[in-house]
Amino acid sequence: MQTHPSLIERTVGATLCAFSRQEMPYEEAEMELVEIIASQIDGRTDYAMAVIGYYVREMLKALAAHQVVLADVFDAFVDAAAEAEYGHTHAALKLSEPISRLRH
Fold first, then answer.
1. How far, in Å, CA of 94 to CA of 43, rounded?
2. What are the b/e assignments for 87-97, b being 16+ CB within 10 Å?
3. Taking a C-beta distance cutoff of 8 angstroms, is the pair 78, 9 a contact?
4. Gap between the Cα atoms of 74 and 69, Å rounded
């Protein structure tokens, strides 16, 4: 079942704000964000979870190092959750966008 978009936005926003203010540990933020996205994937596999987890970790590291701005990270997570209903590759593509801009 798909989660309502406004609930996803609130949860992602609260998690990212708490993480960026160092009120939430890295591991807890990672688990919360992976679950938000993964919960939207029908028939998720271990591989799908690993791919989503990789991009969530990279995004949180970039946010902690101030390499990306909070707004871009928020947009990427919300877009990834919206695209997750089409599969983990769609979600991973959205998550990779801010990170791919760092490497060019």
1. 19
2. ebebbbbbbbe
3. yes
4. 9
- Return mean pLDDT, the chain: 91
Q: Say what the pTM is.
A: 0.89
Q: What confidence tens digit (pLDDT) does each residue in 54-83 have?
A: 999 999 999 999 999 999 999 999 999 999
17, amino acid identity: C
Locus of tokens 């919960």 = 39
User: Under a CB-based contact definition with an 8 Å cutoff, are residues 75 and 89 in contact?
Assistant: no
Structure-token match 């989503």, residue found = 52
pLDDT tens readout for residues 19-30: 999 999 999 999
CA-based nearest residue to 34, from 100, 91, 98, 99: 91
Q: What is the residue-wise DSSP string for 2-38?
A: PPPHHHHHHHHHHHHHHHHTT-S-HHHHHHHHHHHHH
Half-sphere exposure of 14 (CA within 13 A, CB side): 9
